[in-house]
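Re: the 534-residue chain
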Amino acid sequence: MLKVFLVEDESVIREGLRDNIPWEQYGFSLAGEAGDGEMALPLIRKLKPDVLITDIKMPFMDGLSLSEIVKEEFPKMRIIIISGYDDFDYARQAIRLGIDQYLLKPVTRMTMRKSLMELKEKIEQDMEQQDYQVQYQEELQEFEQFSLRGFFEKMLDGRLSAKEIYEKAAELSLDLTAPCYNLLLFTIYEKEGASKEWYARKQEEVFHYFLRHPRYILFRLNVSSYGVLVKGEKEQMGLLVANSLECFEKAFGQEEQRIGWYVAVGPEVERLSMLPQCYKEANHCFAYRFILPDRHVLSADSLAGYLAAPGGESLGSVDFMQMDPEIIRDFLSRGAEEEIHDFVESYLHGVQNALHSWMFRSYVVLNIRFAVVSFLESIGADQAEYQDEIGAAVNRMHDEGTDVFLYFINMLKLAMRIRNRINSYQGGKMLKKALEYIDENYGSDELSLSAVAEQVGMSANYFSAIFSQNMQKTFIEYVTDKRIEKAKKLLRQTDRPLGEIAKAVGYKDAHYFGFVFKKLQGCSPREYRAEKRR
C-alpha cells in the first residue's frame, strides 16, 4: 500500500479527513499526521510517505514552505494542497513548486478519492518505469560481462596486439588508457551451511564495489573465478590495490566458516601489452590457494618467505602436511585446467630436493595416484574409464624416465578430462532441464535467471556462467530472442492489440516491449506488422 501523511492545523478538519476517508479501500494507508509544517517535517523525513496532503495556511510553517522543503529532499513524493482560500497567487506558487493537486475546502470524499486515485496511477506508472529501467540496466550489464569475458580471455592469453586491444576496447566502450595497470584474480565460494541468498548478498557487495569505481574493470575469468583490471597513475596503484583488498577483508574476513575466498595480486605493468605477463605471475600466485589455504591474499610479496625456503634436503625436513592428498582432491574439485602447471609447481616446491630420494619419490607418486583415484571415485567415474590410463602413465614414468613433475601434470590432466566430461554430461542434463523450463515459461513476466537457477538446483551466478558458456549467449539474450520471435509470429498472424501481445510474450509493459523489439528488429512492432502485411 502507498503511504499518506496528513498536515492540517484545524483538528476538526484533520480528524474528519483521517476518519472519514476509506484509505485502505483506495489502496493507501495513513502513515501519520501533524498540526503544522514544523511538526510534520521530521516525521515526513522518518516515514518517507508516497503522498503528502497539506493545508496551505498553518502556524509556524505553512504548507507551501513545507512543500518546497519536501520537494527538494523527496522529489518523487506526490503533494496535494488543500486550501480555504480561492486565491490565484497561492495556486501559482503551488504550480511553481510542482504540486500535483490543488483542492479547495470543503474537500468532499469524492473529490479526495478522485485526487488519490489519479496520484496512485501516476505513482504506479513511475514505479513500473523505474523497474523497467533497472531491468534494462541488469540485462545490459549481463551482456557486457559476457562480452568482457571473451575480450579479457584473448588479451590475457596474448592473442591481441596493442592495436587490437584498443579497437576491441572501443567497441565495448572501455576506457583502458592509463599510465599503469595491475590485475587481481579472485574466487569466492560458499561453504556448507551458508544459504544461497546470504552468499549472493556477500558476493554482490564485492561486485558493486568494483562496478561503481572507474579505476576498476570487473570481468569473469572462468566459471568459478573473476578478474579485476586496476588502472591509474603509478603512484596510485598501491592504494587502489590496498583498497580492493580491504573490501574483500571487510566483506569476508569474519565469515570464514561460511565462505571461502582468495585474491591474487600481480605485479604493476606500464603497458597493456604487458598484461599477459602480469596475468601469468598473478595466476602463479593464485595456484597457492590450494597449498596455503589460510592465506587469502596471494602475491609475490606475501609468498616471498615461503618461496625462498629451500626444499627439504632429507625426509626429516619435509612438511608432510603439505603433501596431504586432500590438497590434490581440492584442486581437482575447484581448479581449472590452465592452472595445472602452476599448481604442480606450488605443490612440489617444498620437496624438490627430497625428490632425489627414490623412496620419497615413490611415496609422492603413490600419493598422487591415490588422490586422483579417490577423486574420480567420488564423482562417480567408471573405473574402466581411468584404470588403464593411470596404469599407462605409471608405466611411462618407469620405462621412459618421466620425472615426477611431468607425471603429476599428466595425472591431473587425465582426472580433469574425466571430470569435465562428467560435468559436461551433468551440466548438459541440467541445461536441458533449464531450456525446457524456459520454453514453458518465457511468456511469464515472472521468469528470471534466479527462478531458472533455482529450478535446476544451481546458484544464479554459477548458472549464468554455465548458460553463457554453453549457449554462447547470455540468459537474457536467449529469453529475449524467444520472446521477440514469438511476438513476430503473433504480429504477422493475428490482429491482437500490441499490449496483449506484449503480455503474451512476457512483458508487463507495452512500452518496454516496443523498446526491446525496436532495439533488436530496427523497427517498432506496429511498423513490423504493417510491413509484413503489405
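Residues 442-532 form a domain with the Arc Repressor Mutant, subunit A fold (CATH 1.10.10.60).
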